[in-house]
Design brief:
The protein is mainly beta and about 110 residues long. About 5% of the residues lie in helices and about 45% in strands. It is built from one helix and ten strands. A six-stranded mixed sheet has the order 2-10-9-4-5-6, with no helix packed on it. A four-stranded antiparallel sheet has the order 1-3-8-7. A hairpin with a 6-residue loop joins strand 4 and strand 5. The longest helix is centred in the first third of the chain and has 4 residues.
């Protein structure tokens, strides 16, 4: 069964930090690159960060230097450490496989506001 379960979102002030987690079913996670995506109200899903099975990362320009993606392959879990958050980062955040998009999970809401 395909499973993508995001967690860790919340309300944070500008400049604050959050750490998102995503638990993924083995059939998706094992040996595959994974990504973080976000969807702001009225917009399409936007790529945020990607991470290969070996841990090589890449980022959207808008989050480079502020966000860090990581993964624990033994736990089928990936993470997104978000620092120096801005109001423009407000969105629902999702994880998904890179290159073979699966049905979206429920996502986790991140709201950056004072």
């Amino acid at each position: 069964q395909v499973q993508l379960v995001e967690s860790g979102g919340g309300l944070v002030q500008p400049g604050g930090s959050l750490r998102l987690s995503c638990t993924v079913s083995t059939s998706i996670f094992h040996n595959n690159a994974m990504g973080w995506y976000r969807q702001a109200p009225g917009k399409q899903h936007e790529f945020v960060a990607g991470i290969t099975y070996g841990g090589i990362t890449n980022y959207a320009a808008s989050v480079e230097g502020r966000f860090t993606a990581s993964r624990d392959n033994a736990k089928n879990t990936m993470y997104l450490q978000m620092n120096s958050l801005k109001p423009d980062d407000t969105a629902v955040y999702y994880c998904n496989q890179v290159g073979n998009r699966r049905p979206w999970g429920r996502g986790t809401q991140v709201t950056v506001a004072s």
